[in-house]
């Protein structure tokens, strides 16, 4: 059974190929099909080749794994659209292929099963765009900071190498999920040389990173270290050769082979490429305005979960002021107020920004919210999150304060109209009747689209959050 976030079914709508005939050595005509990269169901204009599962000249059967492609949201295995000989592969690992552009060519084998010409699968193709530039990231989020909140949003995802059994594929006897294979390729690690630590002999992200750091599984290296020859006489005029081994013959930590020199232009890929598009779109369409204040947490009981309390306070505020739990269409000038609350969590990774959704937060209790946050965090970490879980949220939350900063102007992503930012928790002296007390406070920033939300609505929304956060439970 394939994992919903890392696999898709056959990707062969009827307009996804070009047919022509060419003569062969027997003077007969062979059917040649050109397979165009389909829309992988995420509305993105391109995808990056991670790994070909065949080479030119191989024979492949219908629906067998053809290539792993990395989009902004997942590593997707694309199955073969035909049975026959692979005559040409368009691109190599690291190349970006535009949706609707040629991906592979096949010479059909009439003796093997083929998909009917009129059989569609629901995937759509954009017209072949202008040639896109090609050239060349697994993500590991920061460990949760101490203080009892292991799941606060930005930068607080606990590292995990748990592998779902249905998620991995076995290629060349090595079991690994697509994201692990992608990381190994980027780090120059030969998976066949990596000792697996996952259940059932599955290679994990940590295994690959450890092997890259130790230099024990370099791609293209000799199977075993040859005996050291006798030392030759010193040659003062020759520069010493660089090595991954110390003078004692131990592996040293070196710069990964895939890291390019600083100061050189680098083509944005995957998540970071999509993030750039989303940020530019927001800048062009939204009229952002921010208001800030501090929430007093003095009455909290021990064991309160900061992320859960923030989400609960947002739910209370959405019910109090529905105008911020809304979508806005700036072209049609229409507003949609939502009866439910789906909160998009801004999760920052080394690859870029993910925004998974916590669905129906308005009907979840504290345990349900925590479980939903944990699921989203784990799915982002192992790149198994389904594309549909990265869209459709009604309001957003970013906890940038896990690292530093009090106040900010987080980016509102259309069609949403508001995002809440939580800054760094701190202690502050507060004057009270008869003296001064030390209170824990958390700074809040509310950024809203002023085309759809009034200043009064935004201020009342923030006050509703402050009032709820001030409660003991």
Automatic annotation (TrEMBL):
<feature type="domain" description="Lipoyl-binding">
    <location>
        <begin position="32"/>
        <end position="107"/>
    </location>
</feature>
<protein>
    <recommendedName>
        <fullName>Dihydrolipoamide acetyltransferase component of pyruvate dehydrogenase complex</fullName>
        <ecNumber>2.3.1.-</ecNumber>
    </recommendedName>
</protein>
<keyword id="KW-0450">Lipoyl</keyword>
<dbReference type="GO" id="GO:0031405">
    <property type="term" value="F:lipoic acid binding"/>
</dbReference>
<dbReference type="InterPro" id="IPR036625">
    <property type="entry name" value="E3-bd_dom_sf"/>
</dbReference>
<keyword id="KW-0012">Acyltransferase</keyword>
<dbReference type="InterPro" id="IPR023213">
    <property type="entry name" value="CAT-like_dom_sf"/>
</dbReference>
<dbReference type="InterPro" id="IPR050743">
    <property type="entry name" value="2-oxoacid_DH_E2_comp"/>
</dbReference>
<dbReference type="InterPro" id="IPR011053">
    <property type="entry name" value="Single_hybrid_motif"/>
</dbReference>
<keyword id="KW-0808">Transferase</keyword>
<dbReference type="InterPro" id="IPR003016">
    <property type="entry name" value="2-oxoA_DH_lipoyl-BS"/>
</dbReference>
<dbReference type="GO" id="GO:0005737">
    <property type="term" value="C:cytoplasm"/>
</dbReference>
<dbReference type="GO" id="GO:0016407">
    <property type="term" value="F:acetyltransferase activity"/>
</dbReference>
<dbReference type="Pfam" id="PF00364">
    <property type="entry name" value="Biotin_lipoyl"/>
</dbReference>
<dbReference type="InterPro" id="IPR001078">
    <property type="entry name" value="2-oxoacid_DH_actylTfrase"/>
</dbReference>
<dbReference type="InterPro" id="IPR004167">
    <property type="entry name" value="PSBD"/>
</dbReference>
<comment type="similarity">
    <text>Belongs to the 2-oxoacid dehydrogenase family.</text>
</comment>
<comment type="subunit">
    <text>Forms a 24-polypeptide structural core with octahedral symmetry.</text>
</comment>
<feature type="region of interest" description="Disordered">
    <location>
        <begin position="116"/>
        <end position="145"/>
    </location>
</feature>
<dbReference type="InterPro" id="IPR000089">
    <property type="entry name" value="Biotin_lipoyl"/>
</dbReference>
<dbReference type="Pfam" id="PF02817">
    <property type="entry name" value="E3_binding"/>
</dbReference>
<dbReference type="Pfam" id="PF00198">
    <property type="entry name" value="2-oxoacid_dh"/>
</dbReference>
<feature type="domain" description="Peripheral subunit-binding (PSBD)">
    <location>
        <begin position="175"/>
        <end position="212"/>
    </location>
</feature>
<keyword id="KW-0670">Pyruvate</keyword>
<feature type="compositionally biased region" description="Low complexity">
    <location>
        <begin position="132"/>
        <end position="145"/>
    </location>
</feature>
